[in-house]
From TrEMBL:
<dbReference type="GO" id="GO:0042542">
    <property type="term" value="P:response to hydrogen peroxide"/>
</dbReference>
<dbReference type="InterPro" id="IPR023005">
    <property type="entry name" value="Nucleoside_diP_kinase_AS"/>
</dbReference>
<keyword id="KW-0808">Transferase</keyword>
<keyword id="KW-0067">ATP-binding</keyword>
<feature type="binding site">
    <location>
        <position position="102"/>
    </location>
    <ligand>
        <name>ATP</name>
    </ligand>
</feature>
<protein>
    <recommendedName>
        <fullName>Nucleoside diphosphate kinase</fullName>
        <ecNumber>2.7.4.6</ecNumber>
    </recommendedName>
</protein>
<feature type="binding site">
    <location>
        <position position="112"/>
    </location>
    <ligand>
        <name>ATP</name>
    </ligand>
</feature>
<feature type="domain" description="Nucleoside diphosphate kinase-like">
    <location>
        <begin position="1"/>
        <end position="137"/>
    </location>
</feature>
<dbReference type="Pfam" id="PF00334">
    <property type="entry name" value="NDK"/>
</dbReference>
<dbReference type="GO" id="GO:0006228">
    <property type="term" value="P:UTP biosynthetic process"/>
</dbReference>
<dbReference type="InterPro" id="IPR001564">
    <property type="entry name" value="Nucleoside_diP_kinase"/>
</dbReference>
<comment type="similarity">
    <text>Belongs to the NDK family.</text>
</comment>
<dbReference type="GO" id="GO:0006241">
    <property type="term" value="P:CTP biosynthetic process"/>
</dbReference>
<feature type="binding site">
    <location>
        <position position="9"/>
    </location>
    <ligand>
        <name>ATP</name>
    </ligand>
</feature>
<comment type="function">
    <text>Major role in the synthesis of nucleoside triphosphates other than ATP. The ATP gamma phosphate is transferred to the NDP beta phosphate via a ping-pong mechanism, using a phosphorylated active-site intermediate.</text>
</comment>
<feature type="active site" description="Pros-phosphohistidine intermediate">
    <location>
        <position position="115"/>
    </location>
</feature>
<dbReference type="GO" id="GO:0006183">
    <property type="term" value="P:GTP biosynthetic process"/>
</dbReference>
Length: 148
């Protein structure tokens, strides 16, 4: 089964969107495999966003991510990376369709509430970075009601 890394960013936590966001992934049928509530430091945020270090918005992005606690999660399911990105919506909330998380709850690109891995390989790297201790070993008993 595919896994993805999802993070509710500090604005999502401050705005009380944690339950709403977790509920969307749960109700879709995906399985929660890891979850922690943490504030990361600058070095860690820079590692997470290392691929964007040359971007003009990089410093502002790092400041944003370290500005408060985040909810870091691992979700599992068929095509969860791609489908998770669809649930989240386009990077810029101005382009995110209504019904997506960013389309419903965000306005500015630099306060877009949530992160989701963009590929299976980046998900693997991000899960290893955020959950070095490993993740829960369990399988949902709802499996046969969700998958044919
Ligand atoms: P995504 O988070 O959708 O995978 P990117 O990896 O391109 O998007 O960018 C990472 C994050 O950096 C975005 O979610 C957003 O918070 C921020 N970001 C991207 N582009 C800009 C921008 N032009 N100005 C400010 N912040 C940006």
């Amino acid at each position: 089964m595919e896994q993805t890394f999802i993070m509710i960013k500090p604005d999502g936590v401050q705005r009380g969107l944690v339950g709403e966001i977790i509920g969307r992934f749960e109700k879709k049928g995906f399985t929660l495999k890891g979850l922690k509530f943490i504030t990361v430091d600058r070095a860690f945020a820079e590692r997470h966003y290392a691929d964007l270090s040359a971007k003009p918005f990089f410093n502002g992005l790092v400041e944003y991510i370290i500005s408060g606690p985040v909810v870091a999660m691992v979700w599992e399911g068929k095509n969860v990376v791609t489908t998770g990105r669809k649930i989240i919506g386009a990077t810029n909330p101005a382009d995110s369709a209504p019904g997506t998380i960013r389309g419903d709850y965000a306005i500015d690109i630099g306060r877009n509430v949530i992160h989701g891995s963009d590929a299976v390989e980046s998900a693997r790297k991000e899960i290893a970075l955020w959950f070095p201790e490993g993740i829960a070993e369990w399988s949902s008993s709802l499996h046969s009601w969700i998958y044919e």
